[in-house]
Amino acid sequence: MKLKLLEELKNASAEAPLNFTFAGVQFKFTAKIKIVDDKTLDELTNKQNSNDKDIVRELLVGWDDYVDEGKQVPFATDTLEEMLAFPGLTARLSVECINAQYRVQEKN
């Protein structure tokens, strides 16, 4: 039996509010992270020469409320690549991309 709810997860993303400081600079935005199945996550994290940049490039699919100099910054590959030039930012984003795969929100 194929569960329809699980089919919906194939195109799902999770929102992860981020608020952290790196080298004295505050970053605050909501990351949109692609949800993947266990096999895909294993392939992404266990492949030879896998690194944090690859994980972020694959799983971070957008963001909201990212503000720089008072202006909204739309998600774009070139902007993401600017961020990935800093290992501390890359590592923080990679951790969040992985953590989002396991985060479940309880409803009352």
**Structural class based on helices, strands and sheet pairing:** alpha+beta
Residue runs with pLDDT of under 50 for 5 or more positions: none
> Separation of termini?
28 Å
Order of helices and strands: HEEHHEEEHH
Helix proportion: 25-40%
Radius of gyration: 15 Å
Basic shape = globular
What is the count of DSSP helices, taking H or I runs of 4+ residues?
Answer: 5
Q: How would you write the strand order of the largest sheet?
A: 1-2-3
Main beta-sheet annotation: 3 strands, antiparallel
Strand fraction: 25-35%
The average pLDDT score comes to 92
For the secondary structure, the number of strands is 5
What does this structure look like?
This protein is an alpha+beta fold. It has helices spanning 4-8, 38-46, 52-59, 77-84, 87-99, and strands spanning 13-22, 25-34, 60-64, 67-68, 71-72. The strands form two sheets. A three-stranded antiparallel beta sheet has the order 1-2-3. A two-stranded antiparallel ribbon has the order 4-5. Helix 3 crosses helix 5. The radius of gyration is 15 Å and the shape is globular. The protein starts with a helix and ends in a 9-residue tail after the last helix. The relative contact order is 0.19.
